[in-house]
């Protein structure tokens, strides 16, 4: 890899065809920014004229063991571009995870251990393959080129970007102004993510809107190393179940793409009627005109829940199949009527009689006895369909169905 900028040869001009324009429109659909658009159009035209696929990169740090629906907003866009015939590179940031991404944070993010990273990375690609076509996906780990850099290479890389440019990043500037500590290693994160683009010679890098700065660093570093700079495409961040914060496992407002079909279906239906439209735009594969038609139907008096059911079916079918989505819908309807689902956990315990609060904790229906008592006070606990009001209740030997709220059930046998 050259260590000094090289003069780039003038790029040939290729015709802009209807197919190229359609590819540009697909790239822009529901994205936040596509920069620079003219360069991306030229790349698309070149790819069509020469038959050479473009290299499209998405990097994800395995900071948690599971991928949630928020991650799929960008993965869906990757799949669309993959279906156009371009090369998709799914990059697992096993090296950068050890630094910790400071994007959007007001404090230093604790880096993960190698053991945590390896455990999380083990599931990432398998789950991403539920969206991407695994036969057409190049999977890479950024430790491939980051580990061999060593101290000398890291210093050389750091010389190619200034502190002043690094401080243009909003979260760094705000923390510096507030006197909040910024560790030197946090400056290395955008540099290393940018170096990924150099190593992979990417033509386009995708990310959430919170990744814009890091993506632009990649573009700048490619120019430093004499490469044609990548374009960047940012996708909006998906609001979670609360409709306020971005979807995040740490905030508990997420839907994991490997969650059971019944849970996934019910969680999608739990979102607000307002949030539903945002989810249609970012998660649904339905056309814009069809979704606009749904809006008109609701304005004319159709129940919004009927439209939300369509979204729940679509998302659940994508990750579990049509049969599982249909079963999840039947299960949801049964629970809504107060019925008991066909499939619930079956548990056995010794030591009857057992107090109801202790039993709820043992059955993992409540995190603690005190929380179990709070649920009882709120009328949220049932035994065989009957509401429990006595916190001092003791259950003797036998089998009962415990229910907490509308979704948690267990068939418990006491001995």
Folded structure, characterized:
- The protein is α/β, with parallel strands linked by helices and 415 residues long.
- The chain has three domains: 18-235, Rossmann fold; 261-336, Tyrosyl-Transfer RNA Synthetase; 346-414, Structural Genomics Hypothetical 15.5 Kd Protein In mrcA-pckA Intergenic Region, Chain A (Roll).
- 46% of the residues lie in helices and 14% in strands.
- The chain has helices spanning 18-28, 37-50, 69-83, 114-128, 143-146, 150-158, 163-166, 170-178, 184-200, 212-224, 261-269, 273-283, 288-299, 304-320, 322-336, 356-362, 369-377; strands at residues 33-35, 55-60, 87-92, 137-141, 204-208, 231-235, 346-349, 354-355, 381-383, 386-387, 394-395, 398-404, 408-414.
- The strands form three sheets. A six-stranded mixed β-sheet has the order 1-6-5-2-3-4, with helices on both faces.
- Helix 10 (212-224) links the parallel strand 5 (204-208) and strand 6 (231-235).
- Helix 1 packs across helix 2 (37-50) and helix 11 (261-269) runs antiparallel to helix 14.
- It starts with 17 loop residues before the first helix and ends with a strand.
- One of its GO terms (biological process) is tyrosyl-tRNA aminoacylation.
């Amino acid at each position: 890899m050259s260590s000094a900028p090289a003069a780039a040869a003038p790029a040939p001009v290729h015709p802009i065809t209807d197919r190229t324009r359609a590819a540009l429109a697909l790239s822009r659909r529901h994205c936040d920014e596509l920069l620079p658009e003219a360069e991306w159009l030229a790349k698309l035209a070149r790819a069509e004229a020469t038959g050479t696929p473009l290299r499209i990169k998405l990097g994800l740090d395995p900071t948690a063991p599971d991928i949630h629906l928020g991650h799929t907003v960008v993965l869906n866009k990757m799949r669309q571009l993959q279906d156009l015939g371009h090369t998709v590179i799914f990059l697992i940031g096993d090296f950068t995870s050890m630094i910790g991404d400071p994007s959007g944070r007001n404090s230093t993010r604790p880096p993960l251990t190698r053991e945590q990273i390896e455990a999380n990375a083990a599931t990432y690609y398998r789950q991403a393959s539920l969206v991407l076509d695994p036969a057409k996906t190049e999977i890479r780990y950024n430790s491939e080129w980051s580990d061999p850099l060593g101290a000398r290479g890291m210093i050389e890389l750091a010389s190619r970007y200034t502190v002043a440019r690094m401080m243009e990043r909003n979260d760094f500037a705000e923390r510096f102004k507030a006197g909040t500590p910024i560790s030197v290693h946090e400056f290395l994160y955008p540099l290393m993510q940018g170096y990924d683009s150099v190593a992979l010679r990417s033509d386009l890098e995708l990310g959430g809107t919170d990744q814009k700065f890091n993506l632009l660093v990649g573009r700048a570093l490619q120019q430093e190393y004499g490469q044609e700079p990548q374009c960047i495409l940012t996708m909006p961040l998906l609001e979670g179940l609360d409709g306020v914060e971005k979807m995040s496992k740490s905030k508990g407002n997420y839907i994991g793409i490997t969650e059971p079909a019944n849970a996934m279906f019910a969680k999608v239906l739990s979102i607000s009627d307002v949030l539903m439209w945002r989810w249609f735009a970012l998660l649904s594969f339905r056309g814009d005109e069809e979704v606009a038609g749904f809006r008109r139907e609701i304005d004319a008096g159709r129940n919004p829940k009927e439209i939300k059911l369509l979204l729940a079916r679509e998302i659940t079918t994508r990750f579990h199949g049509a049969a599982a989505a249909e079963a999840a819908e039947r299960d949801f309807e049964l629970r809504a009527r107060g019925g008991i689902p066909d499939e619930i956990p079956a548990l056995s315990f010794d030591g009857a009689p057992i107090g109801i609060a202790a039993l709820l904790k043992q059955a993992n229906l409540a995190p603690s006895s005190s929380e179990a008592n709070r649920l009882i006070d709120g009328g949220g606990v049932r035994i065989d369909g009957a509401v429990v009001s006595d916190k001092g209740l003791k259950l003797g030997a036998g089998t009962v169905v415990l229910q907490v709220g509308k979704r948690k059930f267990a068939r418990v046998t006491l001995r």
